[in-house]
Design a protein that fits this description.
Blueprint lengths: L2 H18 L3 H10 L5 H18 L8 H10 L2 E4 L2 E4 L2 H20 L9 H5 L15 H13 L5 H24 L3 H5 L6 E2 L4 E5 L5 E5 L2 H21 L17 H16 L5 H15 L4 H8 L4 H7 L6 H12 L3 H7 L1
Antiparallel strand pairs: 1-2, 3-4, 4-5
Helix pairs in contact: 1-3, 7-8, 7-11, 8-10, 8-12, 12-13, 13-14
Length: 342
């Protein structure tokens, strides 16, 4: 089975389990949007609507604008490591957009008299997230790769388990770092998506877009090392699967399992947790810097349709204020220079 279809069916099952606990209107809404949306997006919609409805704990027909405002204020802050933090603007906006679509559907189908999100949607939060953006350096990326090869983990049991999967984990990390692909796309790679003859790796990304990634000599080595190990593992388990990256059960690695692999090696080697998305943003930044700050090149490398999207990922080494300060310090007359010219 193709990886994309396999993940879609898994997401559909997750959605089905959530809908069982939800009012029938949620399932009606889901059926209306699922044709035009990817399963991962549908799952996000259903999860956020579920969380909202569980919070308000009211009949859908009786939900008011005040209920929605109270909910948005409730999710605005969260606690992590015994510290209160503020949620991002984008997360709040996403919730408003999803709730607006849900209540618009109910209103258009005469299930409710009016859409309580309309005024909130017209005044949704504006501004930039106060986020400390950073990207990983090549040294940090190499440190993670070295950790995967050597199994340099603090826990002995983890180290023992990791030894059996180091070829897989190294291949996952190296593929992320050298392509910048998304976690879902990586989890969906099948064996027949790889062509060592043409040195090409085909993946299907968001919205069904197809991309071809060149297979360098190093990528070929790490993939072949893993394929040899993979064949032995599947043979021992008497399992068959099309998936490139498999779990200890002999099944396709889920997105969550891939996330945990990246997190494990980043914590062991860098002392902090890093997500696959951070590897993607680091890839974009490194491409941007290595091409002489060519935003369009970075955008094409990562498959963005709009360079504005790419710019959100970049933590450039080119500080505009520093460049400007250096320019004027070299070109404006110094106090000593003014004195000499007087």
């Amino acid at each position: 089975m193709k990886g994309r279809l396999e993940n879609e069916l898994k997401n559909n099952e997750k959605i089905k389990k959530i809908l069982i606990t939800m009012p029938k209107e949620v399932e009606m809404f889901y059926n209306s949007v699922r044709i035009g949306l990817e399963s991962t997006t549908c799952l996000e919609y259903v999860r956020k609507i579920k969380r909202f409805l569980e919070y308000v704990n009211k009949d859908i027909k009786n939900i008011t604008k005040i209920d929605i405002e109270n909910y948005l204020n409730n999710i605005m802050y969260y606690e992590k490591d015994e510290e209160i933090k503020k949620i991002s603007f984008s997360y709040i906006k996403t919730n408003i957009i999803i709730l607006n679509k849900f209540f618009s559907y109910l209103h258009n189908n005469n299930i409710i008299q009016s859409n309580p999100v309309v005024d909130i949607n017209n005044n949704k939060p504006r501004g930039n997230d106060d986020v400390n953006r950073y990207s990983l350096s090549l040294d940090e990326l190499n440190s993670m790769l070295e950790c995967a090869v050597k199994g340099d983990l603090s826990n002995r049991i983890s180290r023992s388990k990791q030894e059996n999967w180091k070829e897989r984990d190294y291949a996952i990390l190296y593929t992320f770092m050298s392509t910048g692909m998304r976690r879902t796309a990586l989890s969906e790679i099948n064996i027949d998506d790889i062509s060592f003859e043409y040195k090409n790796l085909k993946i299907i990304d968001k919205r069904g877009k197809s991309f071809d990634y060149p297979i360098t000599d190093e990528v070929e080595i790490c993939l072949k090392d893993w394929l040899d190990k993979r064949e032995k593992i599947l043979s021992q388990k008497n399992k068959k699967t099309d998936a490139l990256f498999i779990s200890n059960r002999g099944t396709r690695l889920s997105g969550k399992e891939i996330y945990n692999i990246v997190k494990k090696y980043s914590e062991a080697s860098l002392g902090r947790s890093v997500s696959p998305h951070k590897l993607r943003s680091s890839y974009i930044t490194l491409v941007y810097n290595s091409t002489g700050y060519d935003l369009e090149a970075a955008s094409k490398a990562v498959g963005h349709a709009n360079v504005r999207t790419t710019s959100l990922y970049i933590n450039s080494q080119k500080d505009p204020r520093k460049v400007a300060s250096n320019y004027f310090s070299h070109n404006l007359l110094s106090k000593e220079g003014v004195t000499k010219n007087s």
